[in-house]
Specification:
Radius of gyration: 18 Å
Helix content: 40-55%
Distance between the termini: 34 Å
Strand order of the largest sheet: 1-2-3-4-6
Number of helices: 8
Structural class: alpha/beta
Strand content: 15-25%
Shape: globular
Number of strands: 7
Length: about 210
């Protein structure tokens, strides 16, 4: 209920140690009254809304049961931008059936529409999921670390330089990871991406700090 959201969001945003209110949600969970609340709160302190997209490709979205269309995402995105709210978009790399080209098409699309930030996430196979069944049946092969590093760098190179990259990998819930095992070596992944970027010189002439990775 909006009155409940207003209570907890206002309490958070008015705390003196809070600089930004960041709300993660689905694009199909933003009715007009919620948008109006977020717009009001944004006048107090900055509000960021994180939207799950994962991919622009509808067959993949159907396969993972995302539950909303690209049009729904666009409607929510442009409504938030009209309200003056920054939007951070979540994407997943390594979804079943997605090629590098398809992933880069998602990045190109997000650059074109003008998102403010992005979170890049490796697909994890977790226990007791449909994906685990597919993986056990040999119908899905997770990305290798080398493949993931190349994909992340390819995404970064394609994204508009104005887009803030909030995440380039992530953690799975403790005790639930089935694959890939290498994804638990978070600092190895981050350092490999960092080192590879520097060796390639991908950001020569750009405003890039090699220690942006957190």
């Amino acid at each position: 209920p909006v009155d409940y959201l207003e209570k907890i969001f206002t309490e958070a945003i008015c705390h003196p140690d809070v600089a930004v209110l960041s709300v993660a949600t689905r694009p199909d969970c933003l009715p007009d009254e919620v948008l109006s609340l977020l717009e009001r709160l944004n006048r107090i302190k900055p509000v960021w809304v994180e939207l799950g997209l994962q991919t622009i490709h509808q067959p993949t979205a159907d396969f993972i049961h995302r539950g909303y269309s690209l049009f729904c995402f666009e409607s929510a995105f442009f409504a938030l931008k009209k309200a003056g709210i920054e939007v951070v978009v979540h994407t997943i790399l390594g979804l079943p059936g997605e090629t590098d080209t398809m992933i880069f098409e998602t990045m190109d699309y997000l650059s074109q529409i003008g998102i403010d930030g992005i979170k890049l996430q490796l697909l994890h196979v977790l226990k007791d999921t449909k994906l685990e069944e597919i993986y056990r049946a040999g119908e899905y092969t997770p990305l290798t670390m080398a493949e993931y590093v190349d994909l992340v760098i390819g995404c970064i190179e394609r994204l508009d330089p104005s887009i803030v990259i909030h995440r380039i990998t992530g953690d799975s819930p403790h005790g639930l990871l089935v694959a890939p095992a290498w994804s638990e070596q978070k600092w190895t992944i981050l350092n490999t991406i960092n080192d590879t970027l520097e060796k390639r010189g991908s950001f020569q002439g750009k405003n890039f700090h090699s220690n942006f990775i957190t």
